[in-house]
């Protein structure tokens, strides 16, 4: 398209200025124009870098939208430094170091622009500029869509970012734009991002979707306010706040998020009003760190697609839920860690597959006038230091109303537990708790079931229509002595006229394959271990023979020396067993092991198989694996560490106790660290229960050598050390090939060679994950494959299954 002419209509008041002139270039026309003049640009392509420094109107011909292309070879195609009107132009930028449209000053109007660029940013606003940008479209797959920086502002109305190589809209360095009815999608970074002290973003009626990062990201003391906005179909979290960020969401909708719908940390503050959060893969609200706070009013969180708690509060954070609804989720509210707190008022928690309210690790929850319905467990106060209050709450149709275990000490006042299918209230394992003016009705089990001599207070409580009895106090009761059993005052029951001790109940048995009941495990980020069972399940016959398990071990990629060591140990145990059966002496074989090596080298997998082999040989009853680390063994005060360590041993009874990063129990600057108490307890238990529990300690090679040398008592308990070497590039390739085969993908010609080169080149620092890195690489390839194939209208089978070298992620 040839360059056209520029017609300038001069609009001055004097007669000689009211004329029309034509110019061969835009630069000449702009030079000749004065404030108020109208520059009408003929259709064509203009290879010029325009600088608008007067309050003129620059526009394409009437009815010719998009026919005028501003497309210089490099630099900034369009710079605006005055209160001009720029309308109906097509701007193309090719300079990766410069914006396509730069607004530096004044209050200009940009109307109907289409910016197609491979620039640092599509539209960039800086400094004192306050533009009004209406109905503009930005397509910039190489950089930021719209950037507002250095104190800039302005209003963006009905604009659309159709693609961006980084953030869709980025606000930094004290900028403060307002977005109205805008759409941001197909960004490789976050949809909307604001960062830096003084930066502020306001969005009304906007939509963010199909972005690879977070939908909205606010960090570094920035603030944002979103009203009537939609955030959905992101690859990362829906909303992310970090480092003193402040965000308000009013009448917004966050949905179809594969990760956390909202994640905030590091003293960030979030206020949600009349906002819905649904269809999220991890947490609906994930709140971390001291000083971090969420205030939610009249909000709804529901329809989780994953296996994580809907609301997760940990590491000293605070959440307030007022008049909210949480429903159709695996778990509703989890509060963890000392200093963490949840205050829930006049809210509904319902249709919860596991636990509605879980309080652990010293956290606190306060629920007032709430309704908890149709959950496996209504409220569970799990361990020492965990507590809070349930006040005037109704727990209806749950399997168990309230559980208190391991020294937790909540206060339950004026609450009603109606129609539980197991027990209204269950207290065990040293739990305490005060129940005042509470009522249990229609229980299919007991009303109040207190075992293990727990020192629970029941005052002015009542039970009605409880199938097994109103009150059950096993192993201690109201008359069981000063130091055991519950304290019962003025309690009544329609079965007996009062509370009394009765015979112990039949033991409750739970196997690993059952749905979690009274004592299921905490799901989510914190741990994979199971809570202790009320009574141990009967030993089961191993599902596989040792030969079958060894076959699975042999099928693992690499680990040749590990396989030899495990086979040699297995052979010693097997021959020793046969010698005993023949009446001969058998060599004593210490079965405890030390695993050393980097993360992701298969230590946990081999530990699981080792336990299964020992069970198949009859050495262990069950052969299950219980994985723990320092946080699971070391308590916060004298005496608590021994209790935690003993509990871990009890969970591993008949199986393998796997202690990951065991060297953390003996830090180099130990001082008064309680890790030594855990080690001392371990040494004794390993001797006392040497025939019922196998212990495997694991960690980095150098650190484990130090650990064993510092603690010779521990070293003497282990028979051998097995070193897990790092996987080589060929072995990492085989792991990817296995993953591809398992998920019905194939490597295209040349992809295997590219993977080998990738794994050879990838940095292998302390964070390198070996086999985990291979799996993450495969997952990243599948994501990039999906992004590519999604653009194909009618993909073939090859399109859907073949992974190419181009699908490899960039090297970290």
Protein architecture, described:
- The protein is an alpha/beta fold and 812 residues long.
- The model is unreliable at 12-18, 476-482 and 496-542 (pLDDT under 50).
- It starts with 5 loop residues before the first strand and ends in a 9-residue tail after the last strand.
- The strands form four sheets. It has a 37-stranded parallel β-sheet that branches. It has a 22-stranded mixed β-sheet.
- 18% of the residues lie in helices and 35% in strands.
- It is built from 13 helices and 66 strands.
- It folds into five domains: 1-188; 241-375, no CATH class; 379-477; 546-723, Rossmann fold, CATH 3.40.50.300; 732-807, Helicase, Ruva Protein, domain 3, CATH 1.10.8.
- It is globular and about 115 Å long.
- Belongs to the CbxX/CfxQ family.
- Residues 41-172, 313-474 form the Carbohydrate-binding/sugar hydrolysis domain.
Highlighted features:
single chain, 812 residues, alpha/beta, 5 domains, 37-stranded parallel sheet, 13 helices, 35% strand, globular, ATP-binding, Pectin_lyase_fold/virulence, ATP hydrolysis activity
Main sheet specs:
37 strands, parallel
- What is the averaged pLDDT score? 84
The total strand number stands at 66
Report the helical percentage. 10-25%
**Overall outline:** globular
Low-confidence stretches: 12-18, 476-482, 496-542
The span between the termini is 44 Å
Number of domains: 5
Strand content: 35-45%
- CA radius of gyration: 33 Å
| Number of continuous helical runs | 13
Given helix and strand content, the structural type is alpha/beta
